[in-house]
TrEMBL record:
The gene is ackA. It comes from Dysgonomonas hofstadii. Pathway: Metabolic intermediate biosynthesis; acetyl-CoA biosynthesis; acetyl-CoA from acetate: step 1/2. Signal peptide: none annotated. This is Acetate kinase. Mg(2+) binds at N7, E385. The lineage of its organism: Bacteria, Pseudomonadati, Bacteroidota, Bacteroidia, Bacteroidales. GO terms for biological process: acetate metabolic process; acetyl-CoA biosynthetic process. The active site is at D148 (proton donor/acceptor). Pfam families: Acetate_kinase. Substrate binds at R91. It comes from the Bacteria.
Length: 399
């Protein structure tokens, strides 16, 4: 079975074509700058070279049409007919309370997804655009929606409710939803499989740390808490997002700066986080270079970043009633040994003992980085959200 996985952003489309029998990625790439000047499709060749095809890509449908054209092309293609693609799986950011698992996409499901747009106005419309485009270009091919929020729908009310008037929850569904659910689900299962331990009996913390980041507490194979909230702003200090902030500060800034809701949203989403504090960059690699050159604000941003990660590890260990497995994943979690080292520093009292040599050797590979004596197993697991989407798609289509 061949499954095409699409991740449609506001101005981009990431894609992977899987052969599910061999678990092989047959083709992959990304369309960038949709609707902007200089749009292009970039993809790697088997020999490692990268091809960039420029073109006028005005909306998502033409972007997907471009992708399908490359998959079919004589020069770069890997299929001879679209009939070779058995199904399409879509990443969908927000499923609200309506979706607690991946679903086969029907007209009724699309209507319910459209109702979730107000919960994720920046993310869900392009996700839906991809679904509309596939329907138009590929007819009745089976499509499956895999929601970032679905895995966290097992959280109890004390985890997902805010201390606001209950009527606002009833009217507007204001609550914690959490994100990165597909990644948290994949790495937690993969870690237990690699360690040979039963998933349902482990107390697990997954740290998905990238430009955006979140932690999740998993018990009995279910998410019981997570650091992102109703939107992806809450929780950790991120590349450009503020993370946890006193709600009173928002109205204070709006009054002092005489700005409205759109401007404050842009401030906390696009101009805060590592970028906002450091004044240097949202990229951890550039931040580390600035720290090495003695930049104090870059150091401060990194210190806040580490403090938040460590604080959530401690909090979720308390929520879980102890900890068996700590997992690092995401771009920073997989590749930054200093982040892993400092996040685990001084946590020996919790049973976390890092093997510093092993930790320093690992860059993007799956490996245990705790000592044999450590009561908590610390492991790096590269995330593979696209494969998880493909696997869910295959399971649902086969049913």
């Amino acid at each position: 079975m061949k499954i095409l996985v699409l991740n449609c952003g506001s101005s981009s489309i990431k894609y992977k074509l899987f052969n599910m029998e061999s678990k092989e990625v047959v083709a992959q790439g990304v369309v960038e700058k949709i609707g902007l000047k200089g749009s292009f499709l970039k993809f790697p060749l088997p020999n490692g070279d990268k091809v960039v095809l420029e073109g006028e890509i005005l909306e998502h449908q033409s972007g997907i049409e471009y992708i399908l054209g490359v998959l079919l092309s004589e020069k770069y293609g890997c299929i001879k007919s679209l009939d070779e693609i058995d199904a399409v799986g879509h990443r969908v950011v927000h499923g609200g309370e309506e979706f607690n698992s991946s679903v086969y996409i029907t007209d009724e499901v699309i209507k319910k997804m459209e109702e979730c747009i107000e919960l994720a106005p920046l993310h869900n419309p392009p996700n839906l655009a991809g679904i509309y485009a596939v329907k138009e270009l590929m007819g009745d091919i089976p499509q499956v929606g895999v929601f970032d929020t679905a895995f966290h729908q097992t959280m109890p009310p004390e985890s997902y409710m805010y201390g606001l008037p209950y009527s606002l929850y009833e009217k507007y569904s204001i609550r914690r939803y959490g994100f990165h659910g597909t990644s948290h689900r994949y790495v937690s299962r993969q870690a237990c499989e690699a360690l040979g331990v039963p998933y349902e009996s482990q107390r697990i913390i997954t740290a998905h740390i990238g430009n955006g980041g979140s932690l999740a507490a998993i018990k009995g194979g279910k998410s019981i808490d997570t650091s992102m909230g109703m939107t992806p702003v809450e929780g950790l200090l991120m590349g450009t997002r503020a993370g946890d902030v006193d709600a009173g500060i928002i109205s204070f800034i709006m009054e002092k700066e005489n700005i409205g809701t759109q401007a404050i949203s842009t401030l906390i989403n696009k101009h805060s986080g590592l970028l906002g504090v450091s004044g240097v960059s949202s990229d951890m690699r550039e931040l580390q270079a600035a720290i090495a050159s003695g930049n104090k604000r870059a150091q401060l941003a990194f210190d806040i970043f580490i403090h938040r990660v460590k604080k959530y590890i401690g909090a979720y260990t308390a929520v879980l009633g102890g900890l068996d497995v700590l997992i690092f994943t995401g771009g920073i979690g997989e590749n930054s040994s200093i982040t892993r080292e400092l996040a685990c520093k001084d946590l020996e009292y919790m049973g976390i003992e890092l093997d510093l040599d092993k930790n320093n050797e690992i860059h993007g590979d799956e490996a245990v980085i705790s000592t044999p004596e450590s009561k908590v197993t610390v492991i790096v697991v590269p995330t593979d959200e696209e494969y998880m989407i493909a696997a869910d798609t295959m399971t649902i289509v086969n049913k």
